What we know:
By secondary structure, this protein is α/β, with parallel strands linked by helices. It has eight helices and eleven strands. The chain has a seven-stranded mixed beta sheet, with helices on both faces. A two-stranded antiparallel ribbon has the order 2-3. The chain has a two-stranded antiparallel ribbon with strand order 8-9. It is globular, with a radius of gyration of 18 Å. The two termini are 20 Å apart.
Amino acid sequence: xxxxxxxxxxxxxxxxxxxxxxxxxxxxxxxxxxxxxxxxxxxxxxxxxxxxxxxxxxxxxxxxxxxxxxxxxxxxxxxxxxxxxxxxxxxxxxxxxxxxxxxxxxxxxxxxxxxxxxxxxxxxxxxxxxxxxxxxxxxxxxxxxxxxxxxxxxxxxxxxxxxxxxxxxxxxxxxxxxxxxxxxxxxxxxxxxxxxxxxxxxxxxxxxxxxxxxxxxxxxxxxxxxxxxxxxxxxxxxxxxxxxxxxxx
Length: 249
């Protein structure tokens, strides 16, 4: 299937770079800067976004000044078009704080322009493709919001609240046909997702991803199925898995 490359599009990429990476158990100093098949993990996301050709601005949400400096070097080398207009802001205490900081920076730079989509992407997912970015743009413009996701393959059990492990209980089977594991990017009109995160912040609403923030503010979201691997670098084994995928390409 072919997707419109939207040559006049001026969408914004919000790159979340400041995750703590504690579950990497010290195997790498910074998972988004760690080498995958000889190239920094972050570079793969940047190359995909640049190849999509629909972004006029990138906002990097960084952890500290040392990381910011490394991100700048990688962006200049692997994504010169995005780095030319890049903006930087520091992350917050929680993910929702970091996203709000990134969206505020994006909105302030581009005037919250109507029709501009914000692609919120966790840079610990280095295998995003340009094709999926174009698909997400098409769907988000038509439906109001879009999230990349894959179907749940495993049987999922729900246990009663506060049931500790290794304790017998009556479990509930969830309908696997209705279960999706969300990924990033998650894509919305900039002005709507910015307002949604302001609401989340003002009302101290707990959310785990951007879809939850959007839906709390009444923004509809469509699931875009991803049939290619887009794993998140969470534990050391994920580095090996991603490298194996990259070496097969």
